[in-house]
């Protein structure tokens, strides 16, 4: 049997999104709901993957099926593709399984040529419309299919508008448009050494190939990486009969959401333009009207629109993002999908829908993208500070969030500043898909043009980044890298702040305060806590971090990096003296001073945690990381009353070729047992004192890092236990404690059965485990990983998202072996991955007891753990 | 039932060496053969391990069994331990499962005290003998058991000898010895704040504990590491009734071998001293007489000795190393063991014994320690060069080998010079166990004192290092670090050469020539080749290396590190230009020049290998390794007509934090596909030309390094295959080739099933695999691995001997997965471990097809592979 590569809209439904892409599946679903959808058909995602595996050729079977579907479409529309008198025009649009707004390519008005444009003019009795469609088609086709820069076409358009004194495109007259068409074709021929293709079939297949290829364009690859979309999904292609929003004052086009995607408010929210085609709205060239104004312009159309929007939301049980076109007073829907929304909106909508009985609590919890909580948890401007701040402009509140940074006027400069560790606000006339990386690294984006559904607004909401769009007071001079707002001139590198919730733009920097968990967010988190089985701990080294994490719901500390406490100004000299000690005695003198500091630190943590588990990792980094450089060595030598040359030589002798794999972790305790003794003593003395003072039930957990071998762990453990017993004797008290290890070398994972004989708990240190499993240095990988993404070798940064296939195999093995030896071994993960949703789902499946992540990721982890538990139950 | 911790010699036999140690088991065997062995008993190795696990205490059960055995011994000897009138004296000697000459401790004459020394004098009617024994006992006990430095005791002895004008110890008179005893006791009390212990039971148990503890002294640990002896074997303790070689002119003591341990010649070979105790011979203070002279001194004793030596060799089917003592004309054997021998002797003896029908060919192959072949394969002095060399002294040919280096006069200085990459000759008056590390790193050892069985001679033969001992012309001034030989004064750092086969010492440096495989070595290697199933390849990057390896029997090249060819003076500028290219065009220009060089290199290799397999690895190291430093950057910038600052910045930008895990291996080909293209082209053009010119059947194997992921391999493979197809088209010829990969990251090993879909062969890169599995940088580990050996955490350097437990588990997994996917996948190993016998045995068991090692290790690998096959068959 022949494989089916092409589906008429009538043949599909919403459940077929893998095959038809999101857009195709929903067009089919809407068609079958009897809604006003222009006829069309979908070429499957499998056809796209076949195209790539077939050396970028569309196979004959697919071509045949496309031609057959085209014939059906001709009959349905009663028009003929390529006909001069009665031409069928189509749109060719991409549609992947997951929505990737603006990432791939679309061509409208396909089928026009020098002859059929005349036929179209005659038949519609609207010559202006016909030539407007043709000039749009030539520009889009040249850009999307042939790769000619859009800006040259824009230049032609601008220069005629300027010479005639027009402001808007719709002011262009028929003769103007004919001139534009002829200029466009001339430009096309000059650059491509051939005439603009006149055969509609050629146009069609070139366009289909262009859509296929757009699956692998750099911005699509980048978007996929950002959103964990696999490269082998492919995109479908939708061929649909054109309806025209550019036929005059009773025509138009728009986009709308069934609820407010920024706040979640239950209210139709959208924009439209009269006498325009789709891309005019999204591109943000003209600022569109709010949807409510449609009631004044075309009341019947408005009422029908509201009715259908309700049908769609009730049908999909989720907030819808819709595209529509009005052709001579008749409404058509061109797309519906579950709308992207801010985290705040997602939470509001989920809670509303539970109340409305539309969805269950489990479903509500599943509806929130855990990563998106990030937006809600970042600091806000303090009300106090806002009182003294200067509002210099106000735009549209396109995506909420408080952002402060230095201004940069293009994505490239923004990225470079980000590399220099600057905080960046990206300022653009309007954004385009090329700006996506710049927006991603920026604290926030400000645009002069574009509405609430402009590219900048949609993408920023998707990223959860602050955005103020359509800020008309802003005059951007991108070339000279400066902007003017009234009396103010703001140059590249100057500080501004933007508030995406209010649309306000401020001069200079403004103080922020931490976020809190309240209202509907608290409600969702409480539901989530009821579903999850994983415990959530935090990685915290300071009292402040610990307080924040506890406030965000951390149930303990999974990783306290004891050495981070040493970097404080008072302490660093003592750790340096300890490292540079010439013998055990000198080292002990320095350690005695550090003991006082360490004990104080641990007491603080135990007090904040009030008896919740605290896992303290013994000193881990290579010692040279603590040492001074350059002139500071001289100063240190003076302080120590020692010879500079000698101290310098000692510092230099600590240099390592590959410090990541050098003298660090428990290797430090094997060579300098005094360090482990000091740390064990500080931990236990602190715990005993807090128990006595506060009465908390504290069971300290001491974690030995970078273990390779059970004998190594045993050696260090013996040192610790001996010291602890001394403390117990001195203080005349015995308390419970646990000793465990990080599993962060492949060898430890491979031999976890042996290691479990000495370890009461394992904490998977997935950062180092990833480095060693791949043989990939986190600090060096950025130089070449880009080429890996571009070539489709890796799709994700393995340091952000756990490599389940490789590293995960080691972890699964270690879990199995560890439990073999010690049935009740306590298992957790404390690498960066501990706060990453897909990694949390993976370790939940493996049966780990907890994840530990940075304080601001605790709520994310709570939600992700709940989703993991719900999915596992299903 | 009570565990048996103590065995009378009558209760044991030679097969019980695990329990009784080598010495104890052989004493038992000899006792049961009816040979003249003083009575005694053995405390088992298990008692030693019990002592350590029991917090360094001898448990009551063991004490009880020792006391019972002691009673039996009293009855057998008709003497009473601790009796004043008729004292039983004993020796207390260590004896591990494997022979560890001089590494652990021995105490003789135990049981003497201020009273029993008088009884001994009366009973033997030999007061001189009694006090000589007592002073020896005090010195040994104080040194071995109490840790007092031997040298202070020697000073006392030397000063009285000097004051009386004596040269030898045996000239000391009774009164002198009494004075020495009182001085020794005084010194003991001053230092240890207690009297020398008078109770023989106390003496005995302190001595037993000292022997137990000696198992973990630093030199024993070092020796174990050198000889792969596990730490948990422990040592047995042998308590034996004393017989005395120091009773006068019909008494004596000696050591002998049944064949010559340096050359293998079939002839009794040994030395003895009249009126002396055991340690006098080994310590090399007096130069002893050759064994043949015993025939003149004591003919009956000599004849009996020869008879028993024959019995022992025939009984053990191996060359024996024996210790004996003559007490008043009666011969006793105190030890026999399979004698240590040089590689040359081992080969001679094995071949002789096959001819004599004593052993099979398999047994002969098993008898040769593969590592020992190293000695035979190192260069020899060229006969030509020797003609012009100056012989400045001649000593005993104690251990064969030609060695050339700078003179150092103590182990410490020698080790430091070695660290500075100097070649070292260690020159000592006589060596002691403290010198073992110095001897190990030295090219050879020269001693002024000591015979063919002195410490230096025995240890050097064990190590396979050149040694000339007992070179009387040499006057060593260790304090001033200079030696005088006749007219010559040779200071620290001056060059000399020694020839351990002739005993000659030469001034200055002498040219060497490569060794060859001939005679009995060739015979053994031919037998070995008949038994082994593993193929042996070599790691060779140059034509010279390849020639040497083929001469040594290499069956192919398993690893050609293509980048090593770039370090040549002509080529390095081109690779630098390639690296510093600012764009693909500049890079291609440089690569085109490199192509010419690479092709030439590969042609050379293909010609030498004559159709044997050649595996070429694509460029592997981080690019900055090729770049110049300091002023050389300026020069390079000039050569390239480029701005210095710019070139400098480019060089600096290539710096990496952890280059081992950075931008290297196939990652270079992912970012710079032009490099892979150039190399693939060079390989194939070279192969095609050599096929055309010489008619060899060449099937090049191209190896992609540092693969983590099958898509990565596929990406690089596609580049290579495309380029190869271009070459085929241009040359109008198609030849066979294979593409495979190194398995050197844990991830590759874990996902070997996927990787095998694209790889036709795997070569395990165990150097990197070990680094990553342990998270241990080979270049940095030496700073702390010492502490790991001392604390018994690791026993071996995992970079020298494959970590079978951890890394081996990954390899075994990869072998299984690889074969699952591709049944006929070709498997090899090309890390340092490819030439290490225990690692070869391991990979033979796993079913690998070949090992690849450095050229000089090829014969070692051939032999080790044969032994592995023979053992596996058993």
Give keywords.
874 residues; alpha/beta; eight-stranded mixed sheet; 31 strands
Structure characterization notes:
An eight-stranded mixed sheet of chain A has the order 12-22-21-14-15-16-17-13. The first copy, chain A, has an eight-stranded parallel beta barrel with strand order 24-25-26-27-28-29-30-31, surrounded by six helices. In chain A, strands 1-2-5-3-4 form a five-stranded antiparallel sheet. The relative contact order of chain A is 0.07. The mean pLDDT of chain A is 92. Chain A is 46% helix and 17% strand. Chain A starts with 5 loop residues before the first strand and ends with a helix. By secondary structure, chain A is α/β, with parallel strands linked by helices. In chain A, helix 6 runs antiparallel to helix 7 (174-192) and helix 23 (584-609) packs parallel to helix 27 (673-694). The first copy, chain A, is built from 35 helices and 31 strands. The interface between A and B is large, with 48 and 48 residues.
Shape estimate of chain A: elongated
The proportion of strand residues of chain A reads: 15-25%
Largest sheet of chain A: 8 strands, mixed
- Largest sheet: spatial strand order of chain A: 12-22-21-14-15-16-17-13
Give the oligomeric state: homodimer
Can you give the helix content of chain A as a percent range?
40-55%
- Chain pair sharing the greatest interface: A-B, 48 and 48 residues
Low-confidence stretches of chain A: none
* Secondary structural class of chain A: alpha/beta
